[in-house]
């Protein structure tokens, strides 16, 4: 079944129509087929995960590992949503999930082997939102004292130098995406310190962003544009814009409150 999505789908359909009870292992195998196949397979993986939930089956770490593996061409938000869903189920990552999740986020070709300098060079061409999401996951894995594979350790080492020291020259949309990815799953002290370090935003608080982390990037941008006059985050982003056009402008002035 691996590498053959059509065969996997046909087998599941035949089992379902003939009354054979589908279990988690069957769906995991079908998801692995999506993972192994070439091209865009994340829609098929979404269908399979939806089927698993419809059948009231309990996903396990193998399901989520295959799911994120099948997301190799999916938008970054699908990956971060899958990781958030896994945590909602109370499932802790293992070394296989960590390697697959980081590798998919960072778009590492499956057949390509990197030494450490090559890995760092590779990450320079990975979009910033994916780098930011990988750093969030990396911190989770470190806090959980997860034992990582040698490839994951290379990812972690490369991620330490993957973000620029400042955002000068970045397009505003890129800055927005990176900012939201850093805050997506964890509005905690570490994420806020990251924002201070990389953006100069000084007064983000956990209650400043109600509902934003449940929105897509475009929806967030629309909301910020709509509420630009009274939204604190919008004001910070406006300062970011001004600082790019006026080198004398400061992103975080002394008269503004810092992070609590």
TrEMBL record:
Ranges annotated as biased composition (Basic and acidic residues): 232-244
InterPro entries: TPR-like_helical_dom_sf (IPR011990)
Top-level lineage group: Eukaryota
Chain intervals for the UniProt region annotation (Disordered): 232-260
Protein name: Pentacotripeptide-repeat region of PRORP domain-containing protein
Species per Swiss-Prot/TrEMBL record: Symbiodinium natans
């Amino acid at each position: 079944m691996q590498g053959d999505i059509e065969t996997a789908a046909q087998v599941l359909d035949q089992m379902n129509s003939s009354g054979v009870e589908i279990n988690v292992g069957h769906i995991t195998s079908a998801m692995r087929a999506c993972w192994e196949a070439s091209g865009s397979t994340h829609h098929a993986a979404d269908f399979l995960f939806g089927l698993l939930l419809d059948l009231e089956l309990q996903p396990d770490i193998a399901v989520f590992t295959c799911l994120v593996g099948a997301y190799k061409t999916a938008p970054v938000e699908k990956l971060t949503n899958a990781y958030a869903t896994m945590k909602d189920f109370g499932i802790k990552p293992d070394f296989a999930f960590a390697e697959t999740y980081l590798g998919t986020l960072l778009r590492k070709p499956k057949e390509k082997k990197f030494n450490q300098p090559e890995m760092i060079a590779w990450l320079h061409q990975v979009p910033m939102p994916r780098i930011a999401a990988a750093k969030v996951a990396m911190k989770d894995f470190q806090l959980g004292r997860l034992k990582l594979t040698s490839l994951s350790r290379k990812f972690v080492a490369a991620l330490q130098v993957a973000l620029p020291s400042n955002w000068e020259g970045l397009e505003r949309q890129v800055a927005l995406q990176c900012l939201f990815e850093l805050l997506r799953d964890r509005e905690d002290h570490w994420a806020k310190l990251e924002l201070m370090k990389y953006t100069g935003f000084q007064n983000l608080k956990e209650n400043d962003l109600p509902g934003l982390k449940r929105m897509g990037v475009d929806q967030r941008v629309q909301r910020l544009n709509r509420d630009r006059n009274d939204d604190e985050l919008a004001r910070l982003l406006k300062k970011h814009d001004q600082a790019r056009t006026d080198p004398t402008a400061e992103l975080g002035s002394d008269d503004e409150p810092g992070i609590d």
